[in-house]
Amino acid sequence: MPIYVLPDMVAAQIAAGEVVERPASVVKELLENALDAGATALAIDVHGSGRQLIRVRDNGQGIPTEEIELSLHRHATSKIRQIDDLAQLQTLGFRGEALYSISAVSRLTLTSRHRDEQVGARVVSEGGTILDARGIGVPAGTVVEVADLFFNVPARRKFLKSDATERRHITTLVMQYAMAYPDVRFQLTMDGREAFHTTGSGDLGEVVEAVMGIEIFHQMVEVTPMPPMRSDLPPIEVYGYTTIPDLDRANRSQIHLFINGRLISDQRLTYAVVQAYHTLLPAGRYPMAVIMLRLSPAEVDVNVHPTKAEVRFHAPDAVFTAVQRAVRRAVINQSGVPVVHKTSPGPSGSAPVSDEDVQKAQRLSALMSAGRTREAGQLDLDLDTFSPGRYSQQIAPDTNLEAQDEEDRFYPHYEAVTPPHLQQKANSVQSIDPTALPEGMGKPTRPRNLPLLRVIGQVGATYIVAEGPAGMYLIDQHAAHERILYEQFMAAFQSQQIAVQQVMETATIQLGAMQARLLDEYSEALAAIGFEVEEFGKNVYRIRSVPAILADRDPADVLLHLLQDAEAGKTPGAQAIEAKIIKRVCKAAAVKAGQILSHSEMQSLIHQLERCENPRTCPHGRPTLIHLSNTQLEKEFGRT
Ligand code: ADP
Ligand code: MG
User: Fold this and answer.
1) What SS3 class is residue 143?
2) What is the pTM of this model?
3) From the CA of 77, how far away is ligand 2's center (Å)?
4) How far is the CA of 56 from the centre of ligand 2 (A)?
């Protein structure tokens, strides 16, 4: 093809791709403009998950009538005049691209009255072409309406996710800006219903509480600024809220970072927050945090990417250390008695933690009562990150030895905890997958995928010792049970025969606004799996039913853990979401490490494991069993 200069319209649509990826990107740009205009109150109305209409109203200074058309032009900005101005940038915007890009891919109406003018103006544009511009009497401030987003870019429309996902992106974004600007009143409505609001009182804690939910907020400590470590370092103010080590997450998605009121994503700074918990959280677990940084605009380069979410620091190490120190001090000083986990030292490149901190952590560690600290070995195996001991009483290992004989003595404990699932399993198996029934029950049996195993006993109330033709087997009871339940549940799910249990007592959960969005997003998948959840009040939900295998678990607890898992924010296909939820359900339902099993329970468990399709790993990929062959045993004992 010969070279050809693209028409303006095509160029505009291509440029729009960089700034406007999805409805939430439009909301972001419009919010930033309103905040830059000094608004103290913002209303965001979203219809049809943002595809139909996004309207942002603000009470900021407004746009002078004679500039209103200009504001839709590319590189039209009132915020900088020359490149050096970036060093003193006090605004979120500066590229003059947002309105231009958004108008290129939507039907946009911009209505504004500058606070020093008597009359306002309105421009209407469609796909980047101005259709109408006229004077109009309106209150001071600006209203931007973006209708039919991507109406002229079908390819973009196709890449949008489900309505619920797009709504969640919008809510998350609005909540993040509300945290960054606690003195601005935000109101978000979706299809006419209020989804979130803040009062604009200026109290960051109040906004964080509204976003995270009261339960999480109560487990957060305030991060307050510290004087710089050395006088030659640039002043960096770090403040916000972060969770105490009792509370953690499986991913970093709940670490929110803001620089000078700008939401940013920065892996290194996220790592600084995580690093502040060194030795306080098990490996692979992360805190939740809202961290604000204030530093001179000359210290940050925000002109890295069109979305302005990435930044570069002139003194990155100083910023890293400032965040790490402030968070560390907050966690060490202000939390009650944090749970101190023994973990291996971090990577050699990790930021230094002062000796004093380490000693303090060690003292705390020594103070910890034995019961609250999980052993390092157990942590590594991650047998039970799901509230061990909360719904299952742990039994001291030395009472385990006679478990078989003393079954009666322990039965009351069992009744509350273990046998119901093991029985339940047998029951639900009947209704779910007849072929999975143990042998001798008159149904066709599935092929055995493990050698025939004979149970010998239990070690540490955690592992089952068994003998097979080829030697000795140690089976992780929790992992094995997870595998069994997972295969049964997946089979039931695929044949749409999941046994559901009504929840008798009213189980309600109060969620943070973010979690409520997730619940909204996953509601279909959850319903398919047996969770019937209905909205009861604002962000309060009632659980009406759960999958039957969870009958004796705390439904609220399981659901909360499910949502935490989902918080990763990744959006795999629908099937994958369901598989993920099923894995979590099975983890919750499976017999715990630390539960004594009777001989027959162990035999039944092994029996079912033998007939699993993949008996050797749990659904998360960890081994369910260790095999010591006869040859290995002989070698170990020096018989060969
Ligand atoms: P930028 O924010 O990078 O300057 P935009 O395309 O987002 O570029 O906006 C262009 C200009 O329009 C802004 O510089 C500002 O002068 C004006 N503007 C946009 N939105 C608003 C608003 N809500 N209130 C006042 N002025 C606005
Ligand atoms: Mg802007």
Assistant:
1) strand
2) 0.61
3) 8
4) 13
Cα three-residue angle 409-415-417, rounded to 5 degrees: 110
Nearest CA to ligand 1 atom 19: 33
Question: Length of the chain, please?
Answer: 640
Pairwise CA distance, residues 365 & 360, whole Å: 8
Q: Provide the terminal-to-terminal Cα distance of the chain, rounded to the nearest Å.
A: 76
Neighbours of 312 (CB within 10 A): 12
Ligand 1 atom 23: residue of nearest CA: 34
Containing H/E element for 333?
A: helix 316-334
pLDDT tens-digit profile of 242-292? 999 888 888 888 999 999 988 898 989 999 999 899 888 888 889 999 999
CB atoms within 10 A of CB 215: 14
Query: Which residue puts its alpha carbon closest to atom 18 of ligand 1?
Result: 33
Instruction: Find the helix or strand (DSSP H, E) in which 514 lies.
Output: helix 513-529
Q: For residue 94, which atom of ligand 1 is closest to its CA?
A: 3
Query: How many A from CA of 59 to the centre of ligand 1?
Result: 14
Do the beta carbons of residue 598 and residue 458 sit within 8 Å? no
The predicted-structure confidence for 395-453, as pLDDT tens digits, reads as follows: 222 233 233 232 222 222 222 222 333 333 333 322 223 233 333 333 445 777 888 88
- In the chain, helix, strand, coil percent, each to 5? 40, 20, 40
pLDDT digits (tens, 9 = 90+) for 178-196: 999 999 999 999 999 999 9
- CA 110 to ligand 1: nearest atom: 20
Which two structure tokens, joined as six digits, stand for 256?
């929110």
195 CA to middle of ligand 1, Å? 26
- Judge if the beta carbon of residue 141 lies within 6 A of ligand 1: no
Nearest CA to ligand 1 atom 17: 71
Q: What is the rounded average pLDDT for all residues in the chain?
A: 78
How far, in Å, from the CA of 495 to the mean position of ligand 1? Answer: 54
Pocket test residue of 78, 89, 95, 146 for ligand 1, highest count of atoms within 8 A of CB: 78
Structure tokens at 394: 């742990």
Q: How far is the CA of 235 from the centre of ligand 2 (A)?
A: 28
Please spell the DSSP secondary structure of 448-482, one letter per residue: P-S---EEEEEETTTEEEEEETTEEEEEEHHHHHH
Cβ-based neighbours of 15, under 8 Å, separated by 6 or more? 74, 97, 100, 101, 104
Quick check: CB of 33 below 6 Å from ligand 1?
Answer: yes
- Strand ranges across the sheet with 540-547: 500-510, 540-547, 532-537
